[in-house]
Amino acid sequence: MHKQLIRVVHPTDGGRTVLRTEENWDSNLEAGSVSQDGCIAELSAKFARGDPIVVYNDF
User: Fold this and answer.
1) What is the mean pLDDT of the chain?
2) How is the chain classified by DSSP, letter by letter?
3) Which of 5, 14, 17, 50 is most buried, by CB atoms within 10 Å?
4) What is the C-alpha to C-alpha distance for residues 43 and 7, in angstroms, rounded to an integer?
């Protein structure tokens, strides 16, 4: 399986972008890089299916 680069653009509102994959929906993969203004996050992972989400707290 190839590693994929995912770039997510979202408004700066205090959250951080993480990736959740079908391997473990309860685990967050943190962004490898975030733009200076916090609006663009780049995530890289090997996965078949996943969803980038914005997390506001760790509960």
Assistant:
1) 83
2) --EEEEEEE---SS-EEEEEETTEEEEEEEPSEE-TTS-EEEEEEE-SSEEEEEES---
3) 17
4) 6
In order of 1, 12, 58, the CA distances from 19 in angstroms are 17, 17, 14
Q: Locate 54 and state its tokens.
A: 């914005």
- Please tell me the distance from the alpha carbon of residue 3 to that of residue 41, in angstroms, as a whole number: 16
Tokens for 51?
């969803």
**Per-residue model confidence (pLDDT) at position 41:** 92
pLDDT at 2 over 80: no
pLDDT at 35: 93
Q: Are 18 and 50 in contact (CB under 8 A)?
A: no
